[in-house]
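Hi all, posting the design record for the shared folder.

TITLE: backbone redesign
STEP: 1 of 1
STRUCTURE INPUT:
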């Protein structure tokens, strides 16, 4: 798979010509990539966190190595060794125009107390988060990235006290992009840490992502002895944050503003979009940067690379 992806990158400059002259050739490249992936179903033993994934109905599992290949080599993200795998909708693949996925990782920083779950005013918390986001934009600009605006809740935070799962969604706007980004997160709490399940999607897919949440909530569970209720105050470490801190993103301080999940359209996909009347690939941003373009710019890009013969 890596060789196929490298081939695509090396010949990216020829993509516009290929599209104009032999569009089926480029489509075949992506079909080959999709066919090379080995999806799984059923019960999956997660490599970290002492947990198990029961692949929910309507999804297929992609292991850590393949997920990392997609995120880094195909979707243009920096390497992230914490990724344990991903859940991809059955009817879609990672190269489809409207594809999206849930990325799974584990954070073993201790037991997260949920005492504050019922006392949080999420409207007030949102105001604080918006201010924090504005402050972080100065660092984003220094790093050469577009500013990000926290528009609001796409789905207000909710803590399921029975399942010990927290989930919420934010709507983000990157730079001058016309299409906003969906940032949907779930945290499955355990005795010594938590599983992070994050949707990589666009705002237009909110309804589809939200409809899948009931199944996703129960898909990841800790093994006996490692569940939330197995916590031993005498021996186990308590995390430095609570439920409010997870939603506010304080837990992500070690990776800063680059931890925000976004969608990203690489030039190679933009060319396809122009050639096939709006075909668009929603992807992770390189260090969460989003560079999607309106249709007019995509068409102009294609015409620039394929001047009409007089």
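Okay, here is what came back for every position:
SEQUENCE:
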């Amino acid at each position: 798979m890596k060789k196929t992806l490298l081939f695509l990158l090396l010949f990216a400059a020829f993509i516009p010509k290929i599209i104009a002259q032999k569009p089926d050739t480029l489509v075949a490249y992506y079909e080959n990539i999709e066919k090379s992936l080995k999806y799984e179903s059923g019960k999956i033993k997660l490599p970290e966190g002492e947990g198990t994934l029961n692949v929910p109905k309507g999804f297929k599992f992609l292991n850590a190595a393949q997920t990392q290949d997609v995120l880094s080599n195909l979707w243009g993200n920096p390497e992230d060794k914490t990724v344990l795998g991903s859940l991809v909708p059955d009817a879609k693949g990672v190269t489809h125009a409207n594809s999206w996925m849930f990325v799974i990782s584990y954070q073993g920083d201790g037991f997260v107390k949920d005492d504050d779950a019922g006392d949080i005013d999420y409207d007030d918390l949102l105001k604080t988060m918006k201010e924090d986001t504005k402050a972080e934009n100065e660092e984003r600009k220094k790093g050469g990235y577009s500013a990000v605006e926290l528009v609001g809740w796409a789905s207000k935070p909710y803590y399921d006290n029975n399942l010990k799962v927290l989930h919420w969604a934010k709507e983000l706007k990157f730079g001058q992009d016309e299409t906003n980004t969906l940032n949907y997160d779930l945290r499955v709490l355990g005795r010594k840490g938590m599983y992070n399940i994050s949707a990589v999607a666009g705002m237009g897919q909110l309804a589809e992502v939200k409809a899948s949440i009931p199944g996703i909530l129960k898909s990841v569970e800790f093994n006996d002895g490692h569940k939330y209720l197995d916590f031993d105050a005498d021996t186990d470490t308590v995390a430095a944050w609570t439920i409010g801190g997870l939603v506010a993103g304080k837990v992500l301080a070690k990776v800063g503003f680059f931890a925000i999940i976004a969608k990203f359209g690489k030039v190679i996909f933009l060319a396809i979009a122009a050639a096939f009347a709006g075909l668009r690939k929603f992807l992770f941003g390189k260090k969460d940067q989003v560079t999607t373009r309106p249709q007019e710019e995509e068409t102009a890009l294609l015409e620039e690379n394929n001047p009409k013969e007089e």
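COMMENT: Residues 1-15, 252-310 have pLDDT under 50 and may be disordered.
Let me know if anyone wants the other runs.
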